[in-house]
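Notes from the pairing session

We agreed to fold both candidates in a single pass and log them together. This is the raw record for the first candidate, unedited. Please don't reformat it; downstream parsing expects exactly this layout.

Candidate A
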Amino acid sequence: RDRLVKAGIIDRLFVELNEMLERHGKELKRGQITITDATLVDAARRAPKDGDRSCQRDYDARMTKKGKRVYYGYKGYIGVDRATGLIHHASFTPANVHDSQELDNLLIGREEAIFADKAYDSAVRKRSCRKKGVFYGIQEKGRRNRSLSVRQRAMNKRKSVIRNLVERVFAHLKQ
């Protein structure tokens, strides 16, 4: 994968794959409604103690914490077209990069709606979407000393039903 990225081939392969799918009738709507999410991908931490050096440490990976568990690796991000369920953008970062930092790389630029989990929520992004006329389907999160209202919780539940599509893609990839 590293060699493909360094050679600049991976993006061309992804574009070629999408064009091939379109030729066979699986036309992407080109991000009219984009659903995004991230998942953790483990990396090799260190060589085993028995002396086997075939498993070396991955120096590009980083640490992150999810719940009470610590992970060493990467985060994989995808942008999925809601109409077809096909991935239109994918990227990887070290695990210590916050999910919200990668959202702009997962968008095509002419979305009518964006759906994502609470990690992507921000007031600046919400204002930006409203200015552009893009539906802000990112789940809202409670703020310090202010929990979500009943209406906000109900809206989050409705948004999570749509986000289920991207979760199914990750579930399929992790099998």
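Candidate B (folded immediately after A)
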Amino acid sequence: MDYSSKLGELNKKHGLVICGKQGGANETADDDKRQDEIDSQRYFSTLKHRVGKSGRGYVKEIVKWFGLWEHPLETEESKITDFEKSIIGIEWLDGHAKITPHSAKDFAENSERILGLLKGLEPKMLFFFGANMFDALSMIKPQAEEVLGKALGEPEKVGKAVFQKFENCQVIALPHTASTDASHSFIESLKPKIKPLIDEYRKSKGV
């Protein structure tokens, strides 16, 4: 599946893209297909099933982080606003591909899919949940700039987080939600940096 959540009018272009490493495959192809079909009908913040080995659900943690940045996300379909509808989830690697381990080099060598997705979505804001994905993006910078526009200045590192402004997109790379580097205290400490960027996105998007 190209997208890991519902594609709608507000997130199909110029939205907020949340990019994970690789969706976890289920035990059988039928299970995968069934889950993909369910996910394709739900907006990102309402997804329920994604729980990693750490026991910290991927989507649940991201929802928690947005709350720490004072941009809470509704998790019930009946309550979501245009902000939630402007968010789309994707994965760098096909969830059913057998590619391990996930080093920056692995991501860079398998970048055709992600570049195609980003070209279609033309995001205004892009979160990577896995810092080595930003390292991979740097390895394919010429191709990335064809999609996101020219990089404006150098990347700014704040602990394990990285911020990079492109002509057409603000990129933020954070540790994966299951990482030991992703403590809630660290994530909350990024609020002075991230909150204004989300404010700006929401104002420009009208959500």
